[in-house]
Specification:
The complex is a heterodimer of chains A (334) and B (80).
Chain A (H helix, E strand, L loop, with lengths): L2 H7 L1 E2 L1 H9 L4 E5 L3 H6 L8 E2 L11 E5 L5 H8 L5 E4 L2 H11 L7 H4 L5 H10 L1 E5 L5 H10 L4 E5 L24 H12 L4 E5 L8 H6 L3 E4 L4 H14 L3 E7 L2 E7 L7 H4 L10 H4 L4 H19 L8 E6 L5 E5 L2
Parallel strand pairs in A: 1-5, 2-3, 2-4, 4-5, 6-7, 6-9, 7-8, 9-10
Antiparallel strand pairs in A: 10-11, 11-12, 12-13
Helix pairs in contact in A: 8-14
Chain B lengths: L1 E6 L1 H7 L3 E5 L6 H11 L10 E4 L2 E2 L11 E5 L6
Parallel strand pairs in B: 1-5
Antiparallel strand pairs in B: 1-2, 3-4, 3-5
Classes of the chains: A alpha/beta (334), B alpha+beta (80).
């Protein structure tokens, strides 16, 4: 049996474990944690036997191993080559959350284990609405990463259709989507990743008539457009509604990201005042698909940090990344 | 005085370099330096807006540069 198959078979979620209990299945729960961890997260409503050190006792029948976050036990199953044994995904932390709120967050256990995220951070992520303006080179990776992280709702705004020349940098669209609407193609791909994220699509461009309404419905707005005029509009409505804007832009090998309009912090108009000129679009100047992938992911990362309130961040600062030298410059905007 | 200039996006392409080192007269201001840079680019930056940062900070107004300052010229970028 290869590691992949073993790994796939040895995981049980809190929801599945509860189902076993309800169905009266016969199994033994083995808690491998030291006492201090057991005191922090006691296993609510479950009979367990303790096995703090050494090998797992040789008990007949199915076994479920529990540790704090479900990571140690996955390793034990592989290292000790255990059979008929499952690791509880998300560990005691996810189990207790499921018991108290009937909400299974174990899918996100690898990010909730981060002290800065935890279960509360994950709930904030799952309650958040983010508008993404543009579903092209930047919009695709932003949407993909936010849906993967379990974001509550996305509003996707784009009136464009998928072209063959988009595919090298817009991974939510495939060859069969050429000629279809970008927002519909993106929605279809995102639903396959995580169907729990609600997705609202707006088949049109952000303008004076709809911009304020779209941004007011969101907790954060992501600028993934390819023109300065729309960026200025997003900036204007972001300021007006006090909803933060995460700016991203590209020129060939270089990308820029800034977090703008957070409780009066600098906006796009402070970054580039008046009507700046310059910089062709990706279609005109050329770009490798990895660059919008990197910059879009930095935008998504900053969005999660804003929602969960993790610092330091790029509020009031402009990050410039060079994909050739990998040099990163951070400029204080004001 | 010696000044280091960091080039970004179109500025980088105009000079074919990430960085320029220039020897300037004491008291040269940021806007005088911008004029020098635009002239040195021989028209390649004529239609491009530039923001100036000194020592990793945007400046509200022009200032006199000091020896050892690091000046960045940052164009807006459109692509997405």
């Amino acid at each position: 049996m290869n590691t992949f198959t073993l790994k796939k078979n040895m995981i049980i979620t809190p929801k599945e474990l509860q189902k076993w209990i309800n169905e009266g299945n016969d199994f033994t729960v083995i808690d491998v944690r030291p006492e201090n961890q057991r005191n922090e997260f006691p296993m609510d409503g479950l009979d367990t036997i303790m096995s703090e050190n050494g090998p797992i006792p040789n008990i007949e029948g199915l076994k479920v191993l529990v540790c704090q976050f479900g990571i140690v036990t996955e390793g034990m199953i592989i290292e000790q080559n255990l059979t008929d044994t499952f690791s509880l995904l998300g560990g005691a932390q996810a189990w207790n959350e499921f018991q108290s709120k009937m909400e299974d967050l174990s899918q996100w256990s690898r990010q909730t284990v981060l002290p800065e995220i935890g279960l509360n951070g994950q709930k904030r992520i799952m309650d958040a609405t983010i508008a993404i303006i543009g579903m092209g080179g930047l919009g695709c990776p932003v949407a993909q990463s936010l849906v993967t992280a379990g974001i509550g709702k996305l509003i996707l705004v784009d009136g464009d259709i998928v072209e063959l020349s988009n595919l090298h940098r817009q991974p939510l669209h495939g060859i069969d989507d050429v000629g279809t609407k970008k927002v519909q193609s993106a929605e279809k791909s995102l639903e396959k990743i995580n169907s729990d994220t609600a997705i609202e699509i707006i088949d049109g461009y952000l303008d004076e008539s709809n911009g304020l309404d779209i941004i007011q419905k969101s907790d954060v707005v992501i600028d993934a457009t390819d023109n300065i005029k729309t960026r200025q509009l997003i900036d204007q409505f972001s300021k007006e509604s006090n909803i933060p804007m995460i700016y991203g832009g590209l020129f060939r090998w270089e990308g820029q990201v800034a977090v703008l309009n957070v409780n009066g912090s600098p906006g796009y108009s402070d970054l580039f005042p008046d009507s700046p000129s310059g910089g062709d679009t990706c279609a005109d100047a050329g770009v490798l698909g990895m660059l919008p992938g990197i910059i879009g992911n930095i935008q998504a990362l900053e969005a999660i940090k804003l929602i969960v309130d993790i610092k330091p961040n790029l509020v009031g600062r402009l990050l410039i990344y060079d994909g050739k030298s990998h040099q990163t410059e951070i400029i204080e905007i004001g | 005085m010696k000044i280091k200039i960091k080039c970004f996006s179109q500025v980088k392409y105009a000079f074919g370099k990430d960085e320029l080192k220039m020897e300037l007269e004491a008291g040269t201001s940021t806007s005088e330096l911008e004029k020098l840079i635009r002239a040195k680019a021989k028209g390649k930056l004529d239609d491009i807006s530039l923001r100036v940062a000194v020592n990793q900070k945007y400046l509200p107004n022009e200032i006199e540069l000091k020896d050892g300052d690091e000046v960045a010229f940052i164009p807006p970028v459109q692509g997405g």
